[in-house]
Design brief:
Layout lengths: L9 E4 L3 H12 L4 E4 L11 E4 L1 H9 L4 H5 L2 E3 L2 E5 L5 E6 L11 E4 H16 L4 E2 L4 E6 L4 E5 L6 E3 L1 E4 L6 H6 L7 E14 L7 E6 L3 E7 L9 E10 L13 E3 L2 H6 L4 E2 L2 E2 H6 L4 E8 L7 E2 L2 E3 L1 H5 L8 H19 L3 H23 L5 H10 L6 H4 L2 H14 L4 H6 L12
Parallel strand pairs: 1-2, 1-12, 2-8, 5-14, 12-22
Antiparallel strand pairs: 3-7, 4-7, 5-6, 9-10, 10-11, 13-16, 13-20, 14-15, 15-16, 17-20, 18-19, 21-22
Helix pairs in contact: 1-4, 1-9, 2-9, 9-10
Length: 426
C-alpha cells in the first residue's frame, strides 16, 4: 500500500459510533480511509443514548437527516429532575422546543450504530470496514504509521492512525503505557427497555432520586397506535469503591428482580418503577466507569478519539455526542493542515483540555449534581422546591453544564458549520 501522505489512507482502529462518523467525515472531504473493527459481525448492541443538538447538527451536515434519526429514536422535548417524593426539582424544554436550530434525539444505540454502518458501506464501499480486526498496537515510520492486529493478522500502513477502539483501547495503552487502570467510582448500573406509556410530554428525559440511588427514564421510540413506546431505563446505585471494579465482567445480563428489588420504594401515582423494570425482557449490569484524563491524545501521526480518548460517565448524556464532535474536528483540521500530524496536533490542542475537564465534571455527577445538591439540603423530599433552591440557581447550574459540554444554545445557533458545505481537501 502506498505511503505517500497525499494518497495513503487514514487508518481508523474501531468501527463504533466514533470511528464510523470519522470515516463518513473523511469521505465527505475527499480523504481516503479504512476502518478496522474488532467484532466479527455488526449487531445492534446496547440500549438508549442521547444525541445532543451539537451532534445532531454535525450529523445533518454529514447528510444524516432527522428522518434518518426518527427511524432509530425520537426528538427529546423535555429534561426533568424529580425528587424522592415524586415532586419536580427542575424541568426545561430541550432541542427545538428550547430554541435550538436542531433537535436533541434519544435513540437506540445499536440501531443508530447500524444506521452509521449501513451509510458508511453505501458511501465508502463494502470493503471500507474490515471486521474481525482487533488492533494490538502500531509502529510509527518516517512518513507513515503501521497498525498491527491480534491473532497474527496482516498489518496495514497508512498516513495517519486514529484510535477509536473504546475504553479498552490498545492504541491508547501504547501511547500511555503507564496509564492508571479504568476508574470505578462506586456506581453500578442496570439497563433495560420496557414497552410502556411514555411519561410527561411523551418525549421527556426524567432523572429521579439522589446520588446514592437514581433512575433515568426516557422513550427511544415514538408511541404506537395504542400509545405504547419503547422506554429506556437506567437504574443506578452507588456503593463503596476503592477505584477499581471488583466484578468478573464489565457487562452481564441479570434477572430483572435484581434491580427491581433495589427500587421497591420508587412507587408514585404516575410511575411504578419496580413494575417498569420487571416488565423488561432483560436487564444488563455494568459499572459506571471512565478513565483518568490523558495529558495528550496525539503522538505524531497517531491520535485518539471517542471513548479511547475520553471515556466518561454517562451522567451528562454526551459521550456519543462528543465522539461525533471529535470526528468533525479532526476533519476540519485535516482541511486546514492536510493529512499530516499537524492536523492531529491541532485537533489535540482544540479538544483535549476542555473535554478532559468535562470527563471530571461528569465524574462529579454532571447535570445530575443538581440532585446531589437538593439531597444535601433536604434529603430529596420537599413541599416547595423554591424554598430549597431558587429557580434561578437551578437554571444557572444546568446552563453551566451545557456551556461546558459544548451545546450552549446561543453559541451553537450562532456558530458557523465546523466543516463548510462542499469543502474538499485539495
Amino acid at each position: 500500500m502506498a505511503t505517500d501522505s497525499n494518497r495513503a489512507p487514514v487508518l481508523i482502529a474501531g468501527g463504533g459510533i466514533a470511528g464510523l462518523t470519522l470515516a463518513l467525515t473523511l469521505h465527505q472531504i475527499g480523504v481516503p480511509c479504512r476502518v478496522f473493527e474488532a467484532a466479527s459481525d455488526m449487531r445492534p448492541l446496547g440500549v438508549g443514548i442521547n444525541l445532543q443538538p451539537n451532534a445532531v447538527r454535525a450529523l445533518s451536515e454529514l447528510g444524516i437527516s432527522t428522518s434518518d434519526l426518527n427511524s432509530v429514536g425520537l426528538p427529546v422535548r423535555e429534561w426533568a429532575l424529580v425528587g424522592l417524593n415524586g415532586r419536580d426539582i427542575h424541568a426545561e424544554p430541550r432541542g427545538r422546543e428550547a430554541g435550538y436550530h436542531w433537535p436533541q434525539f434519544a435513540v437506540h444505540r445499536g440501531d443508530f450504530h447500524m444506521l452509521l454502518y449501513r451509510t458508511a458501506l453505501k458511501r465508502l464501499g463494502a470493503d471500507a470496514v474490515t471486521l474481525g480486526a482487533r488492533a494490538s498496537g502500531y509502529d510509527i515510520g518516517q512518513s507513515s504509521v503501521t497498525l498491527h492486529f491480534e491473532n497474527g493478522a496482516h498489518s496495514c500502513t497508512g498516513a495517519l492512525l486514529v484510535g477509536a477502539d473504546g475504553i479498552h483501547s490498545a492504541v491508547r495503552a501504547q501511547m500511555h503505557p503507564a496509564q492508571p487502570p479504568i476508574h470505578w467510582g462506586g456506581a453500578v448500573l442496570w439497563r433495560g427497555t420496557t414497552r410502556a406509556r411514555p411519561l410527561r410530554t411523551g418525549a421527556s428525559f426524567v432523572g429521579l432520586g439522589t446520588h446514592a440511588q437514581r433512575m433515568v427514564i426516557y422513550p427511544i421510540s415514538a408511541p404506537d397506535a395504542a400509545g405504547m413506546a419503547r422506554i429506556n431505563w437506567i437504574a443506578e446505585v452507588t456503593q463503596a469503591s476503592r477505584g477499581t471494579w471488583p466484578g468478573r465482567s464489565w457487562f452481564r445480563e441479570v434477572d430483572t428482580n435484581v434491580p427491581a428489588s433495589q427500587f421497591d420504594a420508587f412507587r408514585y401515582p404516575w410511575l411504578d418503577v419496580p413494575a417498569m423494570i420487571l416488565g423488561s425482557d432483560a436487564a444488563f449490569e455494568n459499572p459506571m466507569i471512565d478513565r483518568d484524563p490523558a495529558p495528550f491524545w496525539t503522538q505524531g501521526p497517531v491520535t485518539l478519539m471517542g471513548d479511547a480518548a475520553h471515556a466518561m460517565y454517562p451522567t451528562g448524556s454526551n459521550g456519543a455526542s462528543q465522539a461525533i464532535i471529535d470526528a468533525r474536528e479532526i476533519g476540519a483540521q485535516i482541511l486546514t493542515h492536510g493529512v499530516t500530524p499537524a492536523a492531529l496536533a491541532a485537533y489535540n490542542a482544540a479538544l483535549c483540555a476542555p473535554v478532559s475537564n468535562l470527563v471530571l465534571r461528569n465524574r462529579g455527577a454532571g447535570p445530575f449534581g443538581l440532585l446531589n445538591e437538593i439531597d444535601s439540603r433536604c434529603g430529596g423530599v420537599f413541599e416547595d422546591i423554591d424554598t430549597v433552591m431558587p429557580a434561578q440557581e437551578r437554571a444557572a447550574f444546568l446552563a453551566g453544564y451545557r456551556k461546558a459540554a459544548g451545546f450552549d444554545r446561543d453559541a451553537l445557533n450562532a456558530a458557523p458549520p465546523r466543516i463548510p458545505a462542499g469543502a474538499r481537501l485539495a
